[in-house]
Amino acid sequence: MEHIIVTRPRPGVMLVTLNRPRSLNALNKALLIELAGTLNEAGADADVRAVVLTGDERSFSAGADIKEMPESGIPPFAQADRLKSWKVIERFPKPLVAAVNGYALGGGCELTQLCDIVIAGENARFGTPEIKIAAFAGDGGTQRIPRAVGKARTMMMMLTGEPIDAVTALAWGLAVEVVPVEKTVDRALEIAAAIAEKSPLAAQMVKAEILMSFEKPLDESLSLERKMLMWQSEDHQEGINAFVEKRAPRFTGR
Ligand code: HXC
Fold first, then answer.
1. ∠ CA(63), CA(114), CA(142), 5° rounding?
2. How far apart are CA 63 and CA 53, in angstroms?
């Protein structure tokens, strides 16, 4: 792959590093397609139980590749393969942890909000500067960011285009922890490894249920939650047995 690097630094954990440093990891179409392909593979691979997504110390991602815009403007951003790639990221069923250093702007900020847990380095800057090029956060940002931080803060971010720093992102709920820059990836890997020790079935169910709370009316999601409660698995039985027998559980994903 040309634009991302994939490694497996810990048991059950895949690390995906965006690798277009000269463009501050701008999300060109090719990168999005590679990322979606990698997540599709990770989703189907039982040895991957959680994925960490990161950039480099200067930039997580500066957003959509503006240099892909000049010839035909924004419309190519609605091309089917590009939209399909975002859909794959959005629907990735396994836990996705973002390790964010530096810029997380525009599509880069939207990408962090498709991750389930966001760890921010002290130099992280989250922003939606699209208005500066007379565009808007059209890869889900205008809908997801208000759900995360509320209307007034989103208006401030999207109408001024000015980024917020890591501590503000933490206070507003765009990130869950702020750590020194050199620790961001390690901390994200540590969290992913802790998730990877759990039952992969349960982790996916937790993720699906929490996302459901943003997507469905409450009566519908409560009823679905109740139905999911009926679900049984070998892992569930193993968890109970291990507790009773005072030993560590061995989850197999069945
Ligand atoms: C393409 C980008 C880029 C981007 C930076 N670069 N952001 N290339 N697309 N989004 C490139 C620069 O052109 C430059 O390349 C190199 O990365 C380093 O950037 P500099 O500007 O020299 O760095 P710096 O002065 O530190 O400023 C960093 C920055 C600035 C504040 C992040 O680059 C910036 O404002 N970038 C644009 C961010 C943005 O508007 N993102 C939202 C995109 S729109 P060269 O070759 O010149 O050295 C979007 C959604 C659109 O995401 C709607 C979709 C539906």
1. 65
2. 15
Higher pLDDT, 212 or 72: 212
Answer whether 158 contacts ligand 1 (Cβ < 6 A): no
pTM over 0.85: yes
Task: Judge if the beta carbon of residue 111 lies within 6 A of ligand 1.
Answer: no
Q: What is the pLDDT of residue 70?
A: 66
pLDDT computed for residue 76 by the predictor: 67
Q: Which two tokens stand for residue 211?
A: 């996302």
Supply the residue whose CA is at minimum distance from atom 24 of ligand 1.
Answer: 24
CATH topology of domain 4-196: 2-enoyl-CoA Hydratase; Chain A, domain 1 (3.90.226)
% of the chain exceeding 70 in pLDDT: 97
136 CA: nearest ligand 1 atom: 53
Ligand 1 atom closest to the CA of 141, numbered from 1: 50
How many CA atoms, within 13 angstroms, populate the side-chain half-sphere of residue 12?
A: 20
Residue 42 alpha carbon to ligand 1 centre in Å:
29
Domain extents in the chain: 4-196, 200-245
Within 10 angstroms of residue 72's Cβ, the number of other Cβ atoms is 9
Neighbours of 184 (CB within 10 A): 29
Virtual CA dihedral for 99, 105, 111, 115, nearest 10 degrees? 40
pLDDT band at 72 (very low <50, low <70, confident <90, very high): low
Active site residues: 64, 107, 110, 130
Quick check: 78 and 100 in contact, CB under 8 A? Answer: no
Give the pLDDT of residue 230: 77
Give yes or no for residue 239 having a pLDDT over 70. Answer: yes
